[in-house]
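Course assignment 3, question 2. Fill in each field.
Student: A.L.
Task: Predict the tertiary structure for the chain below.
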Amino acid sequence: MNLDATYMGLKLRSPIVVSACTLSEEMDNILLMEDSGAGAVVLFSLFEEQIQAEQDCFNGIIRPNRNAFGELGNLPEMEEYGSSTEEYLENLRRIKERVNIPIIGSLNGVTPEGWIDYARQMEQAGADALEINIYYIPTDLHLTGGSVEKRYLEIVSTVKKNISIPLAVKLSPYFTAIGNTALKMQKAGADALVLFNRFYQPDFDINSLAVLQNLQYSNAAEIRLPLLWISLLSGKLDLSLAGSTGVQGANEAIKYLLAGADVAMVASALYKNGIGYLETIHQDLRNWMSSKDFQSIADFKGLMNQAQVSDPEVYGRANYIRILKKG
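Answer field:
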């Protein structure tokens, strides 16, 4: 079976990509990801706050007085961000010397200023592409949807102008008009869209009356929203699409590919089952392709997007009404 895929112009041996997570902090883990068949690896994220702290000596100035500044009082200690920026870049250089699959750097932030220098440095360190994760929750009641979109587009445009490697943007699912936003992202310079970002969502402990700060792994049901939008956007944009969230095995990866995604990204399943689980995903993918007489990913990619299905209304309001009537 030919599992070759293309993502942002990068030639991959597989459409299964490891998404940004702490598993990629260790060289041995990345070597195992490569040995287990991963098409590419997105490195763990470098945070804008981490960059800002190191550039401005933020940590030494603020830490003794952090309680004196209300807006800074809840910032995590710097060690919670993981490796320092220089360690990140050095780790990237060492990884590129050891592996043959594409390595994608990852930046997580909210302003254009926090990205430019390190986007360039990631490219210089050997990153094959860059993924920016704009983790921004608009809590200001006076902030409009247009302002939020403008912030995203400014970041994409600014970063793209300062690098020559491909740029992927990890999008939030909360834009008013995702299709139009995706088109604007393309015009701003995005080479790929990763659908979607999983925002941190707090929970409450009703006994201790405390906010629980924990992170839950994704589950297979979570693919439905990105599956919808990949199906709708596939074939309409001149950029790559990545399905992220909910990939627990080959089934979810296949669905993303059928919708038109170029790659399916996995992380939670590797935490649950180990990095070697990538081999199982690939074998199950090959078995399914064999059962359907598909010889390559290209044979079925996008086969079930809105443009290809016999009834395009299955993605629209009319189908919603049909489902309710059946119920």
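Instructor remarks: Residues 61-76, 78-82 have pLDDT under 50 and may be disordered. The CA atoms of residues 167 and 272 lie 29 Å apart.
Grade: pending
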